[in-house]
Design goal:
Length: about 375
């Protein structure tokens, strides 16, 4: 029996809906494996702006710092799209990532066999997809300064800065190499070195580090080519490591190899301190409040939380197995299944996964 503190940040849109199911899963795991998960809720995003005037209240930061792990839903929505940049919901998410130094974002892209025929791509192309995208999460154009609007000679000018230090590049690349060592030992470093100075530095550092990991095969690939290769032949990839914005875009693209954006979980990790776990999707304003969202990305993020932050491997496996069984039994939410007669709501999907968690044998 063990005791863990988990911060729960539901956020906006479908965030609270998918988090509700994920929390019920955590409660089921606690019962089944005799753990105590003390869950405390915090505000982040638009809901925090509305209640406190800021997307990342100090209490939320304190709550996260005092937890063993953090589970987050999603932030943002049209209601806050006209806010000043520091009051946008997204600033809350970027703020917590930066404050906790969560520089390594792991986004596994794994196709469940049961969903082979649900990808919009041909099954013979997506079969066997198992890619891990390692996205740098606290640097690059998301955080570089100057970042401003000003009056120029031809009307307003807007400036964003893509900046990376050697140290930032090195630490994320080392994560990529080490993770590849535990997998198929192939690392694809993605950049735009034919154009960007930051990418040329990135490539130099990758080449230098590769001597420390002689068992890993390093390849460099330009990001535009990767965007195409992911669709053409995803099986060629094992671990992909890349900078912040490329990783953001490629992971949404790669999600469709698995059938839906609603399937991809993520872990955001630092060298010390709590990890943050969240689905890679957003707040989905178009379906929010309708009990339609796919909760599996968030439920699978719970599995990542148990594995990476709490070191509860069996518990993580049990969740992934329950999801697998649920999909094998033919249950789907609307984003995946086109058979609308049989489509499950968010709540029903969560209930179904829990039923396989409760009695894996009888249901299996
Ligand atoms: P989105 O990921 O919210 O939605 C894109 C499309 O995918 C929508 O059609 C949506 O209905 C669908 N979708 C997403 N998740 C789904 C799920 N679990 N089940 C079923 N369908 C799902 O991206 P967007 O529409 O570009 O952005 C909406 C808002 O979300 C914006 O404010 C954006 O900033 C924010 N956002 C937040 C995060 C985050 O909190 N980590 C991530 C991405 C976008
Ligand atoms: C994600 C999201 C965020 C990002 C936004 C909401 C700031 O798209 O987590 O993928 O771009 O990192
Ligand atoms: Mn994104």
């Amino acid at each position: 029996m063990s005791y863990y503190k988990i911060a729960i940040l539901p956020g906006d849109g479908i965030g609270p809906e998918v988090i509700k199911e994920a929390v019920l899963i955590l409660e089921e795991v606690a019962k089944h494996f005799h753990h105590t998960f003390e869950m405390k809720y915090g505000l982040i995003g638009g809901v925090a702006v509305d209640k406190t005037g800021t997307p990342l209240p100090t209490e939320t930061v304190e709550l996260c710092k005092n937890s063993d792990a953090i589970l987050l839903g999603a932030v943002g929505g049209p209601k806050w799209d006209q806010e000043l940049s520091h009051r946008r919901p997204e600033a809350g998410l970027l703020g917590i990532r930066k404050t906790l130094n969560l520089y390594a974002n792991l986004r596994p892209v794994t196709l469940f066999d049961a969903l082979l025929h649900t990808s919009p791509l041909k099954s013979e192309n997506v079969i066997g997809t198992d890619v891990l995208i390692v996205r740098e999460l606290t640097g690059g154009i998301y955080f570089g300064t100057p970042r401003e609007r000003k009056n120029g000679e031809n009307g307003q000018e807007a400036i964003d800065t893509l900046r990376y230090s050697e140290k930032e590049i090195e630490r994320i690349l080392r994560q990529g190499f080490q993770i590849a060592q535990g997998r198929k030992k192939k690392l694809t470093s993605v950049d735009k070195a034919n154009v960007l100075e930051s990418s040329r530095l990135w490539r130099e550092v990758a080449d230098r580090l590769s001597y420390d990991y002689p068992d890993v095969k390093l390849e460099h690939m330009l990001v535009d080519n990767v965007a195409m290769q992911l669709i053409r032949n995803p099986r060629q990839f094992d671990v992909i490591v890349t900078e912040n914005m490329f990783g953001d875009i490629l992971s949404d693209e790669a999600s469709m190899l698995t059938g839906s954006l609603g399937m991809l979980p993520s872990a955001s990790l630092s060298d010390t301190g709590p990890g943050l776990y969240e689905p890679i999707h957003g707040s989905a304003p178009d379906i929010a409040g309708k009990d339609k969202a796919n909760p599996l990305a968030t439920i699978l993020s719970v599995a990542m939380l148990l594995r990476h932050s709490l070191r509860l491997e069996n518990e993580a496996d049990s969740i992934e197995n329950a999801v697998k069984k649920t999909l094998e039994a033919g249950y789907r939410t609307g984003d995946i299944g086109f058979d609308w007669e049989r489509v499950l709501t968010t709540t029903q999907m969560g209930t179904m996964v829990r039923s396989y968690l409760k009695s894996p044998v009888q249901n299996g």
